[in-house]
Amino acid sequence: MKQRPAENVLALVHVLSNLIGRAFHGQIVRRHRVALPEWRVLVTLANHPGSTAAHIVERWAMQPMMTSRAIRSLKRRRWIERRVRHDDRRSYALWLTPKGRLAYRRVEPHASMRYRDIVSCLSRKELAAIDRGLVRLVAQTRRLVRRRSS
């Protein structure tokens, strides 16, 4: 009898998340020296220029300290820059530098290929169903987290 990798759907999500991190690490970190939290910041800024650190934390449900470390690392590499926001002078927006855009363009094909490798075992219909279910689970969990912190 084949054993399940985890006892319930949330345990499976944890297992999958950990495996995705390891699959990313094996391909992307070694090849491009970009850690997963740094990649999340780069992806966010490539798709949402001018995002704040708080936006990145919220978008990825990352720990603020992990996000801060990733941002510091990318700034040291001169891949991102901080600019004071025009609408709130106490806050900073983050932008890819030309060097950061080049790094993103270099890494993105490999990261996308890894994503396609992972989901290739699913049909479009299965992938869409999982996507819908996970979006609902994320929304529900965010509500629970907000309720707990209120």
Name some characteristics of this structure.
150 residues; 2 strands; two-stranded antiparallel sheet; 70% helix; mainly alpha
Short description:
The protein is mainly α and 150 residues long.
Query: Which term fits the overall shape?
Result: globular
What about the largest sheet? 2 strands, antiparallel
Mean pLDDT: 90
> What percent of residues adopt helix (DSSP H or I)?
over 70%
What does this structure look like?
- This protein is 70% helix and 7% strand.
- It is built from six helices and two strands; from the N terminus they run H-H-H-H-E-E-H-H.
- The protein has helices at 9-32, 36-47, 53-60, 64-76, 98-119, 124-149; strands at residues 80-84, 92-96.
- A two-stranded antiparallel sheet has the order 1-2.
- The model has no long low-confidence stretch (mean pLDDT 90).
